[in-house]
């Protein structure tokens, strides 16, 4: 018990004194997951829009597949990418294994399904009347899609934030693709796993607290989005004009 | 303006709209009336090219829109549609009105003045900066009308514009439609299930029942000369009687309905089976009072009141004289005459007030 308490105290000291290693690890974590989130969002939002707006055979099956992939184990994505990115793998020539870039790709792949699925759900939440109204007002196909996506912006933003949450908290891809190399690919989750293994609890707890703080920020952002942002904040998000 | 030829729409096996032929004139208010689910929305959506017809074509201002090269977007942009359930986008009122202009790439400097002009017309200028989703149903409908109007459409399509509104807001919207028509001479196509509204707003009416246009004509035609039982029932004719023409002298016929003989105006020859339609407001009620006064009313039918139902300022009174006849009398005259169930009265119907159709089975 005393070990936990002393570990906790030391952890607070590590954070408050802005310990360089702790900060470096946290910064890399945020950078990698943020990059993966932005990459995944640029793919998932148009992809979700495409799947939602176009009628094709097997649409239902595609959506079910996407929903299944929501819960794909991170280690499975890690394994898959390891096979692809390793020196003898088909993408081996790019030398992405054990690099932050490789980790970004891995996390992007991991969160694309959940983001795409939630974008589809977000668009589905917009009244059919809205797209009819837009078309009857003379919108082209593209103008209609852009406007409906804009209309679903809050729900889509939630999907993006949720994707970031899954990316920063996962350990499978980070460990298998990153390799937990100190100062290079070591992130919050892999570091916690390692330091706990070698008994350096204060360090682990400090990183755990930081991870929880990031989670807190995410939850606060989510709540702000969901509880209907104020009119002014919507304007910040590219909402109302005039 | 719009000529519709053989227009049908099927959803799977079900025919929603069945070979409609129709011509809508430039500058008129054309109203589709029909019960819910009769196909009114379907035909309006086809006219706005939101859905594709299964067969048939629409010729818009001389352009056959079924031709493969037709630019439907360009034609759609000459029209604007307001839906039964107004959908506003999550932005300001002015932002909502701006959409049609934005899609057409209208200059920003032009946009603002046109938005304010459109909002002025619908009386919502003061709410321009309000968030549209906070508006009431009536206000949303007016925003939807402003949003349509701002594009200066040649054809304005309104699907049941007052169906979800209270009477005050409904009247406001009706007045608005009328003033838009007067001011811009816009061709207006609207649908309603409310025949009274149809009566108030339309230049011409098309009756849709079960996906078919059963009659097109002036208000008077539809209300007083319905071409069939379904239409008659829909436009509020309660009394529909089957009879046989006994004699006909220069169009003045005697028609027996059961044991009673009616006099009515029809070219139908003796022996012909016919159907008589009598509007309730054309029936007068008199109390039998010994000394009879002479009257020009040809049909005087003695019967007992079987039912009295209040209907606004009127009382819908059903009289049994063998067959049944419904009369619409004011509440005041019902009270003055002391009308009540089981009282014997004389129902009067002028021969010219009976609409006679040959019975086609």
Structure, explained:
The complex is a heterodimer of chains A (242) and B (361). Chain A has 242 residues and is mainly α. Chain A has helices at 2-16, 20-53, 59-69, 74-85, 100-124, 128-136, 141-151, 153-169, 172-178, 188-197, 201-226, 231-236. Chain A has a domain at 20-185: MetI-like fold (Orthogonal Bundle), CATH 1.10.3720. Chain A has twelve helices and no strands. The longest helix of chain A is centred in the N-terminal third of the chain and has 34 residues, at 20-53. The N and C termini of chain A lie far apart (60 Å). Residues 229-242 of chain A have low confidence and may be disordered. With 361 residues, chain B is of the alpha+beta class. In chain B, 26% of the residues lie in helices and 37% in strands. Chain B has a six-stranded mixed β-sheet with strand order 6-7-8-3-9-10, with helices on both faces. A five-stranded antiparallel β-sheet of chain B has the order 13-12-11-14-20. Chain B starts with a strand and ends with a strand. The interface between A and B is medium-sized, with 21 and 32 residues.
Q: Major sheet of chain A, described briefly?
A: none
* Beta-strand percent range of chain B: 35-45%
Number of helices of chain B: 10
Strand content of chain A: under 5%
Cα distance spanning the termini of chain B: 36 Å
Tell me roughly what share of residues is in helical segments of chain B.
25-40%
Percent helix range of chain A: over 70%
Mean pLDDT of chain A: 87
- What is the CATH topology descriptor of the largest domain in chain B? Rossmann fold
Biggest chain contact = A-B, 21 and 32 residues
What oligomeric state best describes the polypeptide chains here?
Answer: heterodimer
What is the CA–CA distance across the termini of chain A?
A: 60 Å
CATH class of the largest domain in chain B: Alpha Beta
- Number of strand segments of chain A: 0
Shape of chain B: elongated
Mean pLDDT over all positions of chain B = 91
Identify low-pLDDT runs of chain A: 229-242
